[in-house]
Amino acid sequence: MAVASGTFQRLVRSVALVAALSAAGQVQALAPEHEIRRLMLATEEAVNAGNWGEAGEYLNRLQQLDAEKPPEYFFYRGQVMLKAGHFNEAQAALEAYVTQAGTEGSHYQKALKLITDVERTRKSGAAAQNNGEQPPKVAVIEPAGNQNAASLRKLYLADSDREALLTHLNSLLDVAGWRADQTVVRLDKPADVAYEVSVTDSVISFQEIRREAGNRLVRKTQTMEVYGVNPMIEWGCEAAVASCWIYDPRDGSRLMQLGYHRERAGDIAQTLGQLVRHLQAPDGS
């Protein structure tokens, strides 16, 4: 029997959490719907107190739960990602909240303002770099593009850079799925084409989950041995078909089809490249 998409995602995400949860002796005794409410309350308290690292840990645990999450999950995720400097993820999460909650949402106005803050922060950071200045750090956690894998380990409670990068890559792919209908995008609704990445030794596996007529899922997996592969992963976007593509570094063919979002596609290509580098390292990580 094919593994359900939600279950498969949960299994992949749980890799980075197993050691930490086992060491702490934590066992989830509550049903998923109650655990979601408990973790949402804890996330809200952490965000209101400005404890961004703690809030990130709660959100990461929420992400592992195979149950529908309230719109507020995306609102708090957007704030944490903004503080961490993950601007594309912040914007995607905040837009998801606005779409789900609508104008009646209790955080609707603030979410719109935060989306504007994302744009301003990105522009000010770019301007500072153009002037040769170092933009101020707004959080301990930095994007994978800055090669600060140690910060990603803290965010995802991972034991290694490899696990952190893999979890971060799948987190980016979670919001990058391709949809035939571009009019309304809801992150809690499955995309028509989505991807999950896993790693075994020096081999990266890419599972494509394609949703066809009648809600039938077709899964296809291809593997890539990293040795001899150029870690500078190429990508591109085509407005005519509302798609971005990650290209296979071995032959330049299309490896993954994503939604039309240039910066997000660039982040995915960069993170995949970092994962390739770590797998190519003789001593691993």
Written overview of the protein:
With 285 residues, this protein is of the alpha+beta class. The chain has helices spanning 5-14, 18-24, 32-48, 52-64, 71-84, 87-101, 108-130, 149-156, 161-174, 262-280, and strands spanning 193-200, 203-212, 216-225, 235-238, 243-247, 254-259. The strands form two sheets. A three-stranded antiparallel beta sheet has the order 1-2-3. A hairpin with a 2-residue loop joins strand 1 and strand 2. Helix 3 packs antiparallel against helix 4 and helix 3 (32-48) crosses helix 5. The longest helix is centred in the middle third of the chain and has 23 residues, at 108-130.
Give the strand order of the largest sheet, numbering strands 1, 2, ... along the chain.
1-2-3
Number of helices: 10
Overall outline = globular
Q: Measure the end-to-end span.
A: 34 Å
Overall mean confidence score, pLDDT: 79
Contiguous low-pLDDT stretches (5 residues minimum) are 1-5, 7-12, 14-27, 133-147
Largest sheet: 3 strands, antiparallel
| Series of secondary-structure elements, N-terminal to C-terminal | HHHHHHHHHEEEEEEH
Structural class assignment:
alpha+beta
Instruction: Report the count of strand segments.
Output: 6
Which radius of gyration do the C-alpha atoms yield?
19 Å
Strand portion: 15-25%
Subunit arrangement of the protein: single chain
In short:
This protein has 285 residues and is α+β, with helices and mostly antiparallel strands. Helices cover 49% and strands 15% of the residues.
